Amino acid sequence: MRYQLYYWTGIQGRGEFVRLALEDSGTDYLDVAREQGDAVMMSFLRGTQPGARPFAPPFLRAGRQVIAQTANILAFLAPRHGLVPASAASQCYALQLQLTISDIVAEVHDTHHPVSGELYYAQQRAEARKRAAAFRTQRMPKYLGYFEQIVASNDGRHALGRRHSYVDLSLFQLMAGLTYAFPGAMKRLKRRLPHLHALGERVAARPRLAAYLASERRLPFNENGIFRHYTELDG
Q1: Which residues contact 97 (CB under 8 A, 6 or more apart)?
Q2: Which residues is 3 bridged to in the sheet?
Q3: Omega of the bond prior to 58 within 30 degrees of 0, cis?
Q4: Are strands 3-6 and 65-68 parallel, antiparallel or unpaired?
Q5: Which of 83, 97, 111, 89 is nearest to 181 (CA)?
Q6: What single string gives the DSSP state of each residue in 124-182?
Q7: What pTM was estimated for this model as a whole?
Q8: What structural domains and CATH numbers belong to the chain?
Q9: pLDDT tens for residues 39-51?
Q10: Neighbours of 43 (CB within 10 A)
């Protein structure tokens, strides 16, 4: 079966967490909107396609199934493609960690859109500076400190057990995105996060992922996605 991934063109966004799992596992998939344009998603979002109706991208079509929400998609894919241990307890814990990653990703988005996603950044710049300052000094260290402890208290190399999992891939993406958006803040935190930085380097060196990261399929971070770099928000 060839999966069909649906996500907005031109940005990494939340869809990138799914792409990393598909690429790292060598799983065959079609990035549909990149081939056919964003309009191809509208029939799913309007509920005129068969299958469970998604609220928003990313969503994945697997045969007749339509699966939405990043963490939910990853929880579906991982046991099928060797990206999580077989036990129910491990899979539940992996989902717990992924949902916590989803929480910080939502807070990253709100640093540049604290009032409304319907407004441009320029229309909420003053509020964004306040929100970003709180995120940099309070929320980001708290989240990353938690994940640093998770890896350190495990085997020092992985987030889950003693093997590579989709959580490691997502932590790599989180660290890469935060480094792009808040380079100054991340530099100041670097000494406190040795395990996360080492994990990110190991993930980036995995053969299939290294090939993907060097390819045109890996879009660069930009100021239309979730992880955006605005100098005034980096403090």
Answers
A1: 147, 150, 159, 160, 167
A2: 29
A3: yes
A4: unpaired
A5: 111
A6: GHHHHHHHHHHIIIIIHHHHHHHHHHHHHHTTSS-SSTTS--HHHHHHHHHHHHHHHH-
A7: 0.97
A8: 3-80 (3.40.30.10), 88-206 (1.20.1050.10)
A9: 999 999 999 988 8
A10: 10
